[in-house]
Here is the input.
Amino acid sequence: MSEKIWLAELTAEQLTRWLIPPRAEMPFAILERIDRIDFPAGGETIDPVVWAQGRVFGATRELRWERRGAVFQIRVISEQEPGEPFVVQGEFSKVQVRDSWCYMWGVAEGRIGRRLEYRAMPPGQGRPCLLRRELWQGAKLVATRLTGMKMEDEK
Here is the structure.
């Protein structure tokens, strides 16, 4: 495995092209802004102007963005080159891969203040979970990326 980190600075229009549904390679999403968080499905439209930061992800890649003024700072972690205007920031070969599930907020978490909707996941029981891939070189964690979501009882 030779995952790489690719960086670019994109306009809202350029980023929107990456987010056009259906996002077959990146069906999961976490969208954030100061007053809200959302988890749309792969077939839903995402407007990056509305979301200050977010990430879309799947088994093969993760794309993260954060708005900085009129542009978006973009980071892609993948084995596959995303193309122009991305440039390689880091390459990880000879890494150990550790996949682990981590729990997210429950759908009716009291401290969130509203019922959360994880629309990309099939119905299930238990808490929602994120699959996180960690890339290690010896004892050093060099990168992480999200690869999936599921409900706790799903196989």
Q: What stands out?
A: The radius of gyration is 16 Å. The mean pLDDT is 89.
